[in-house]
Amino acid sequence: MEIPQKLRDYINESRAPLPPISDPEEPLQIDSLGLIRLVSFMESDCGIRVEDEELVAENFATLRSLEEFLAKKSQAAVTPS
Amino acid sequence: MKTRVLIIGGGPGGSAAAMFLTKEGIKPLIVEQVEFPRFHIGESMTGEAGALLRRLGLDDAMTQRQYPVKHGVRVFGSSSWFIPVARRDENWQIQTASTWQVRRSDFDQMMLAEAQQRGATVVRGTALKALRSEDGGVRGALIRKSDGTTEEIESEVLLDCSGMGTFLANQRVTGPKYVGSYDKQIALFAHVKGALRDEGLAGETARNNTLIFYKKKYHWAWFIPIDNEVVSLGLVVPTAEYVAHKQSPDEFFRSYMPTINPELSRRTKQLEYVEKVHVIPNYSFQVRRFCGKGFICIGDAHRFIDPIFSFGLSATMREAEFAVPYIVDYLKGKGRDQENPFDAYQRFIEKGTDNLEDMVDLFWEQPFAFATFVHHRYRDQLIDAFAGRIYETERQPSKAIMVFRKLLKRERDYEHPDDYSIPIGSRYHPERAALWEPNSPVEGTEEWLREAVSGAPELVASK
């Protein structure tokens, strides 16, 4: 699964004043509270359920890792919002 | 001398047990080896520990002594969060509550005096040896009294409240004493003036909350106000790291503390030390079969996991309270022919404490998941756990604890009489023997440390 555009936008907003991410390997640089909010946003606004055992900081380290994480979940765990 | 219940150790576990026993008309005898007041660590209480003191009618005494009122625990680290002290009402709804922080020298003295005033007898002396009956049970202890004479004290039930001294485990009356998960950690602590507190009256920024700061896995500090001026500061790191620095406890404490977290550094710029830096290395252990014919081990006398989240005082006093109905039944004759008349109690305590261990382990293993759970997913269950509601009678293990186990890939099996709660200790160091030998060098704390720091690293490596 691709990272939905609104999730990309949310991530870019969360890292402000840092510039929007261009490199998928670049660390998101969102603090832990921001990550917790990010998970909430994924669930409430993108319809992506993040399971308890998926709450590992590495899944949210870069756009690449997030993409891989979403790909792994692609079928069962993803429902349209 | 004879007594129905003999209590070894006049700390809060022994005193609380004595007070709950006197409520039942049983007047125990407490043996305490040192004169109070004396320094002791473990200064913060959970909400349930506060509730227990209220059940003992000590609310006014606590208020009169102006112990700092704790409203919650604030954690600073890569994940920061706050957990308020809260109770459950009769409909199991969460309600705001508070508890206390205490200076142990003063609190323990108050508790022992109170126990004495309510009918317990206090004898100054050292327990030398457990007296055994023919069937292997415990029938009392040999005591050396403060005047140097020895005396056998016969009892129907002996409560081992000796703390980390683990009197009965060292006597090999219990099952084996295993090293625990955090046995490679060292705790250094002192009392200071001049530390900056928050200024609020309640909630997250209340002046007397417990603060926890962490740097990375197994590197952290506590900040616990114990009166209007003095704060208890503690530093916990891997023992090997302390030894590698080759510094005295005092030097290490002062130089390392500010590196834990910028927020801690900001709060501890100008300190006056009012208590020397104390040390407890390799503190984590677990004793199996800690109850049996004629004996029960309470609190640290059978298990110590880790000082984080301040569960010690709460666990020891609650175990004392929970033990009393079992003791009353036993004194009436119930279960005397059983191999372990306190088996049900033992399992009850073991399960509760395992819930705590799972929580501490998840905090270190998966801090991001833990923080997310605190923030929203399992907030109420974590409020319960931090309040010390960890026992079956308190709807435990909660959904959160079950999730912790799943994340830790851990199962707890209590089905078989001898394999409840297999100690999880040493899983990070499988090469080491799991048993804690009663006479290992670890016992002589200060001496062990001097040798370790002065260049005998094998003591650290092999223990």
What this model shows, in words?
Chain A is mainly α. Chain A has a single domain, classed as ACP-like (Non-ribosomal Peptide Synthetase Peptidyl Carrier Protein, Chain A, Orthogonal Bundle), CATH 1.10.1200. Chain A contains three helices and no strands. Chain A has helices at residues 5-15, 32-45, 63-73. Chain A starts with a helix and ends in an 8-residue tail after the last helix. Chain B has 463 residues and is of the alpha+beta class. Chain B contains 15 helices and 22 strands. Chain B has helices spanning 12-23, 47-55, 59-64, 104-117, 167-170, 239-245, 249-256, 262-267, 312-331, 343-365, 367-377, 379-386, 399-407, 445-453, 458-462, and strands spanning 2-8, 29-32, 69-70, 72-76, 81-84, 86-88, 94-96, 99-100, 121-132, 138-145, 150-160, 177-179, 185-193, 210-216, 219-225, 230-238, 272-273, 278-281, 285-287, 291-292, 295-297, 303-304. In chain B, the strands form five sheets. In chain B, strands 4, 5, 13, 14, 15, 16, 17 and 18 form an eight-stranded mixed beta sheet that branches. In chain B, helix 1 (12-23) runs parallel beside helix 4 (104-117) and helix 2 (47-55) packs across helix 9. The longest helix of chain B is centred in the C-terminal third of the chain and has 23 residues, at 343-365. Chain B is globular. The relative contact order of chain B is 0.15. Mean pLDDT of chain B is 90; it is low at 419-423, 425-433, 441-445 and 456-463. At the A-B interface, helix 2 of A face helix 11 and helix 13 of B.
